[in-house]
Amino acid sequence: MSRLVACLHLLAAAVGLCLIMPVLAAEPQSPDMVKTGLHILAGIYGDMDRKLTAEQYDRLPHENQEFQEGSGALRDAVAHDPAAFKDKVEAALKDCLAAAQKVADESKSHDKSKVSAALASLATSMKALNALFPAALRSEPGTVDPPWVKHQK
Question: How many helices (H) and strands (E) does the chain have?
């Protein structure tokens, strides 16, 4: 009977390890670069939100362009991570890029409700992207200024 209990303990430990391994795999090899990449995207989202609030629709395509270019920082950050993880990040990033493009496309209508809906969709896709990384690295949409903005104290 004790041999059965020992086998069950070993089996439970193995199952536990299998459950933990995917979580450990989500730890990027370049966490500082990931944090910066997510920060850039969240900051640009914040710029989009401010442009919408000010009804500066003609500036949103430029913000989309910055978002598209800023995504390169996150791609670079995960470049040396395992392929399966990179694929998940790339898929989530692709959704974000499409959503950012939708904001730019809808901005041509100058319809605040349509642009707001597109921006909300971008926020949702960015939250899914953030969820792939440890909480300490995340930058939720609109919660930060882009790294190039310096605040005076």
Answer: 5, 0
Coil, helix or strand at residue 53: helix
Q: Which domains does the chain have, with CATH numbers?
A: 2-137 (1.20.120.290)
Q: What is the DSSP string of 85-146?
A: HHHHHHHHHHHHHHHHHHHHHHHTTT-HHHHHHHHHHHHHHHHHHHTTS-GGG---TTSS--
Which tokens go with 38?
A: 């997510």
Ranges of the chain whose pLDDT falls below 70: 1-26, 146-153
Dig out the tokens for 61 from the structure: 């395509």
pLDDT of residue 149: 60
Can you tell me the distance from the alpha carbon of 119 to that of 16, in angstroms, rounded to the nearest whole number? 40
Query: What local confidence, expressed as pLDDT, does residue 144 receive?
Result: 79
